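Hi,

I'm pasting everything inline rather than attaching a file, because the server keeps stripping attachments. The sequence lines come first, and each chain or strand is labelled.
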Amino acid sequence: MTEEFFEKKLAAQPIAAIPGMIAFDIPVHGDNRGWFKENFQKEKMLPLGFPESFFKEDKLQNNVSLSRKGVLRGLHAEPWDKYISVADNGRVLGSWVDLREGDSFGHVYQTVIDASKGIYVPRGVANGFQVLSETVSYSYLVNDYWALDLKPKYAFVNYADLALGIEWHDVENAEVSEADKNHPLLKDVVPLTKEQL
Amino acid sequence: MTEEFFEKKLAAQPIAAIPGMIAFDIPVHGDNRGWFKENFQKEKMLPLGFPESFFKEDKLQNNVSLSRKGVLRGLHAEPWDKYISVADNGRVLGSWVDLREGDSFGHVYQTVIDASKGIYVPRGVANGFQVLSETVSYSYLVNDYWALDLKPKYAFVNYADLALGIEWHDVENAEVSEADKNHPLLKDVVPLTKEQL
Ligand SMILES: Cc1cn([C@H]2C[C@H](O)[C@@H](COP(=O)(O)OP(=O)(O)O[C@H]3O[C@H](CO)[C@@H](O)[C@H](O)[C@H]3O)O2)c(=O)[nH]c1=O
Ligand SMILES: Cc1cn([C@H]2C[C@H](O)[C@@H](COP(=O)(O)OP(=O)(O)O[C@H]3O[C@H](CO)[C@@H](O)[C@H](O)[C@H]3O)O2)c(=O)[nH]c1=O
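And the predicted assembly:
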């Protein structure tokens, strides 16, 4: 843990490569017990650019996954928005690929995130990460509901596609799901239309 | 981790001692990467009794704290509702004390929670926990906004009050905040009125 982790000022930084994506600095307060953070605080984050549209349909789901070092999950684009965060002392290499039709199709953004970061990912942008710490708790909010039988309608791109230029660590030995091994290369992905999102 | 942890059926159990409190069983799906859970899923949990009133004012905050073994936080009652969970492989001894005026004032509930549990705590019920694992990530949703200068208006009861009958582990050596050491005994707590909540 570097000094950089604690007491950042709450701030938002739009990600130029992927329109609508926003990286938040989250203040983490440390003391004798550990630390505390307001991971999401609607009243403070809306004025900084967190989209009000996230709450438009009054739907809310909070997902949490626990993953071991070397695990790689992704890259998945679904018809809902995501607000992504790390909920413990872990770190991930987060990667995102724009799968929406238009000028930014195929654009990639990657950055290391720990608990002092929050990432807003608009619908249609594929989301993935690789675990850099021994374990990581990865927690996110979404505004629509997943269903197994809708999975064929979601869009995916293969994490191992070299055309993406993502700098994974030792990707050959990454622990992944069978499903994630079989997603298409970017060149075979049909861009998501506005109607699909 | 016992077998009990994985693949519970989503279910809700009202806590008789404290009206409005609900314990949820949360399905946790394990695989080669770790696990995944829908920690909160509005559409599935409202029909099971998660109060629709939680969303009445369209306010939302997600807090996350990371604590080491032996840390004890609490007991705090604020004028907002809480949905509480564990976001990693850790475990806590959760404890709750009803500070609302009425028949259930002073009623206590305690239970061990891990990631396969979610606890709904209505406003006016004091919330606390002690960490049983090496570390724990504790994550919760609230529906109103904390402010330092409002702290005098929040209600607290001293975790060490023997009258509560809470079975903490080695409470003398618990790692706590200075503030938590100085909260009143139950007998000195002024019950919270409906108007205060
Ligand atoms: C996304 C989702 C999944 N599941 C179930 C299905 C499986 O039993 C288990 C894991 O699902 P998978 O489809 O393998 O999830 P995974 O590959 O980890 O990907 C999801 O989880 C990742 C990590 O939390 C996210 O980064 C991805 O955006 C998300 O799609 O959880 C649910 O019950 N609800 C869900 O919302
Ligand atoms: C509750 C709250 C606190 N803070 C700041 C104030 C301090 O710098 C730091 C820790 O605050 P404390 O008042 O010591 O929090 P703590 O004793 O851990 O208790 C809070 O956090 C606990 C654990 O997450 C909860 O179980 C309690 O209900 C909640 O009141 O976080 C915020 O910035 N926002 C908040 O909402």
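Chain A touches chain B at residues 31-43, 55, 58-68, 71, 73, 85, 87-89, 115, 135, 137, 139, 141, 145-146, 175-177 (CB under 8 Å).

If the labels don't parse on your end, tell me and I'll reformat.
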